Amino acid sequence: MSTACNVCRGPHDRISKQTVQSASLHKNTRNMFQLLPWTFAVDSLHLWVHYGLVFLGFLLGVITILVQITKPAPYGKFDQADSNWGVTINQRLGHVLSDATPGILLFLLVFFFYGTQRQYTNYVFLALWQAHYIHRGIIHPLVMRYSKAQVPLGITLGGLFPNCLFSFLCADWISSARYPDKYYYDPRFILGLLLFVLGYVTNKWADFKLRSLRKQKGSKGYYIPYGGLFELVTCPNYFGELVEWLGWAVGTWSLSGLAWMLFGCATFIPRAAHTRKWYREQFMDYPRARKALIPFVY
Hints:
Elements: H1 2-32, H2 44-68, E1 88-90, H3 91-113, H4 120-143, E2 150-152, H5 153-176, H6 187-217, H7 236-252, H8 255-282
Antiparallel strand pairs: 1-2
Helix pairs in contact: 2-5, 2-8, 3-4, 3-5, 4-6, 5-8, 6-7, 7-8
């Protein structure tokens, strides 16, 4: 008798279960395509600190582009021997301090000891950021052939401050924001991930292209690069990194990510323009059709 009843209830139970699953899927899909797909459930102090620093990040971007559009930051080919930026330190060490310290160490500390969210999405964003800065802050300084062995300490500290600010902000966001369980279906996540990977590959390719150029020439000087995106723009390394952070802003769908991406624009846009101008002045045969940063556009 009991078995018969169970058999009778079986189809109904399966239908009910399917109905619940369908309702759950519908709810997740509806939440996934909301304008703000995440929840940022933190206390009021945490909230004010985060968005206060976001505002500071936007302000820093405005100041940066206004300053650098008239005069490039004095490092690399724009280094000035008479500039008063303090004592000099090893170039590789300076690069590690300004990039790896905030991008790797500070970021990991904030993620694991300040944030609370541990979904797969949070870890994906963590992996993307670390992939960039492990290369940028450790591998790049160790393998690149710099034009000069020393860099003023002031330049290193000048890069350290914004890197600390934005590393804290982005780590705080991805370790405190909760995304939907099915966020990997969201077009913002998919597009952001694709853009980040494309930009990452482009940036690393351009860096190694420049490195190999100096190896071929047997000198630490500057030469006209050719091939690939170098046929279209002067600075494909900047373009690649800009695409990375555009992907980050889209994927995280956050104001902190947007502020970081725009700060990158404030740095890359004027520096690419100054770099193209410098190449044109140094090399009479420099290709005039090359854009500065964005193929066919700018």
